[in-house]
Design goal:
Family: Belongs to the 2-oxoacid dehydrogenase family.
Pathway: Amino-acid degradation; L-lysine degradation via saccharopine pathway; glutaryl-CoA from L-lysine: step 6/6
Shape: globular
Distance between the termini: 65 Å
Helix content: 10-25%
CATH architecture of the largest domain: 2-Layer Sandwich
Keywords: Acyltransferase, Lipoyl, Transferase, Tricarboxylic acid cycle
CATH superfamily of the largest domain: Chloramphenicol acetyltransferase-like domain
Strand content: 25-35%
InterPro entries: 2-oxoacid_dehydrogenase, 2-oxoacid_DH_actylTfrase, Biotin_lipoyl, CAT-like_dom_sf, E3-bd_dom_sf, PSBD, Single_hybrid_motif, SucB
CATH topology of the largest domain: Chloramphenicol Acetyltransferase
Number of helices: 11
Catalytic activity: N(6)-[(R)-dihydrolipoyl]-L-lysyl-[protein] + succinyl-CoA = N(6)-[(R)-S(8)-succinyldihydrolipoyl]-L-lysyl-[protein] + CoA
Radius of gyration: 27 Å
């Protein structure tokens, strides 16, 4: 029986997608809900799972093809014949004992491949293996974690069976689509386990100290960077599994801070006693990329910062008056970021060079605003991009910020979600920063730094009044943005926040 694989619903107002990658080829065995291919739309990346178990038939839409909603992508042969079809490289039995070998023929070796890493990412580093050769694994159980320049990628098991071979050890660099390991699946899988084992191990075998589950890889990294042990963290995941948010809570409770990063300058001489008490940790690929990009930004752009301050009285009053009604109607809290995003969009219309970039000897002006919102995570700074922020309402902006922020903290952002920004907002105020000079996110020409709101005495109409004030900083590329434009931009942001009615009237 043949089953059609069709394009799923792509979302409101999205009518077509491009076939980005096929993860299966004709003749491959597929399980129910196993990922077959990935589609890309203007907004999101969509994974297409298999509707049935069987054998991959014809691929109708090749990589690079544009397809509409419900278009036919491929066919799958399901049922009896597909279930017992031996692997192509399996020897065919011709003797009288063929019937006895059927269960072994029904098993197959399944390759564990490097998943799609994202646009322009061609390699990754194997960070951690959570299984070893001989371990039983369940379908979709996490096998290992890879690190790329931007994100951590978890690799699930494509099938249930026994991990029989690991081809890429921890610390090794692998190319996109490289083979990581081999899993023996099916009836013959148990025979692939080491003979010394009397019984198959459960997916999460008991470890020392009574810990019987593998923690989230992002949590392990966060614990290493914060310098805390597993015993200091209480896991909230299934069976006590430690999640990233658990580490964040433990760090906050203990007042711990991430270990300082190594300096690029030559190390000063240290005594043998001091060296014995040091800990050397290799920088993650994300941290290496952050370091490289920030230094490149300083070396390339003629970066300058201008400052101003804003009286937050009106924004705070407006927020307090409508926050309950806003939450009730839109299902999301009304924060300050939507006000700042709207104010920046308003100012960028008047000073378009802050929203432009240099390409060789050309200046590229953007007639749209893809707003980058810098977010700190346990593994480093990432900048998810809210596309077409200039066309969004306050509620749409708050929803997008909440969704992107949660995905950033969980390490689930795709490369596409962090590319294409035209301007960035960085909020150091959430950490208590009173004033700082943000570094440009190339190739962008401007970044706004928000800071802590602090009550200060201000002279208002000849009287000293206590007002909630915030320092604002605009770092800009002086090659394209003149001082007049930078100051004008910051003043327009200040005016819009001190009198939010200007946003409604486009003043």
């Amino acid at each position: 029986m043949m089953t059609d694989v069709r394009v799923p619903t792509l979302g409101e107002s999205v009518t077509e997608a491009t076939v980005a990658t096929w993860f299966k080829k004709p003749g491959d065995a597929v399980a129910v809900d196993e990922m077959l291919c990935e589609l890309e739309t203007d907004k999101v990346t969509v994974e297409v799972p298999s509707p049935v178990a069987g054998t991959m038939g014809e691929i109708v839409a090749a990589e690079g093809d544009t397809v509409g909603v419900d278009a036919l992508l491929a066919t799958i042969s399901e049922g009896g014949e597909a279930a017992v079809e031996p692997p192509k490289d399996a020897p065919k039995s011709i003797d009288a004992g063929a019937e006895e070998t059927k269960p072994r023929e029904a098993s197959a070796n399944v390759d564990v491949m490097v998943p799609t890493l994202g646009e322009s990412v061609t390699e990754a580093t194997v960070s951690t293996w959570f299984k070893k050769v001989g371990d039983e694994v369940a379908q979709d159980e996490m096998l290992c974690e890879l690190e790329t320049d931007k994100v951590s990628v978890e690799v699930p098991s494509p099938a249930a069976g026994v991990l029989t071979e690991i081809l890429a050890e921890e610390g090794s660099t692998v190319e996109a689509s490289a083979k990581l390991a081999v899993i023996s699946s099916g009836d013959g899988a148990k025979a692939a386990a080491p003979a010394s084992e009397d019984a198959p191990k459960p997916a999460a075998q008991a470890q020392s100290g009574g810990k019987d589950v593998e923690d989230a890889p992002s949590a392990k990294k966060a614990m290493a960077e914060a310098g805390i042990s597993r015993d200091q963290v209480t896991g909230s995941g299934r069976d006590g599994r430690i999640m990233k948010e658990d580490v964040a809570k433990a760090v906050a409770a203990a007042g711990a801070a991430p270990a300082p990063q190594a300096s690029a300058a030559p190390r000063a001489p240290v005594s043998a006693d001091d060296e014995a008490r040091e800990e050397r940790v290799k920088m993650t690929r994300l941290r290496q990329t952050i370091a490289r990009r920030l230094k490149d930004s300083q070396n390339t752009a003629a970066m300058l910062t201008t400052y101003n301050e804003v009286d937050m009285t009106e924004v705070m009053a407006l927020r307090n008056e409508y926050k309950d009604l806003f939450l009730k109607k839109h299902g999301v809290k009304l924060g300050f970021m939507s006000f700042f995003t709207k104010a920046c969009v308003h100012a960028l219309k008047e000073v378009p060079e802050v929203n432009a970039e240099i390409d060789g000897t050309d200046v590229v002006y953007k007639n749209f605003v893809h707003m980058g919102i810098a977010a700190g995570t346990p593994t480093g700074l990432v900048v998810p991009v809210i596309r077409d922020a200039d066309a969004m309402s306050f509620a749409d902006i708050e929803k997008a910020i909440a969704e992107k922020g949660a995905r950033a903290r969980d390490g689930k952002l795709s490369m596409a979600e962090m590319q294409g920004g035209t301007f960035t907002i960085s909020n150091g105020g959430v950490y208590g920063s009173l004033m700082s000079s943000p570094i440009l996110n190339p190739p962008q020409s401007g970044i706004l730094g928000m800071h802590k709101i602090q009550d200060r005495p201000m002279a208002i109409n000849g009287q000293v009044v206590i007002r909630p004030m915030m320092y604002l900083a605009l770092s800009y590329d002086h090659r394209i943005v003149d001082g007049k434009g930078a100051v004008t931009f910051l003043v327009r942001v200040k005016e819009a926040l001190e009198d939010p009615r200007r946003l409604l009237m486009d003043l």
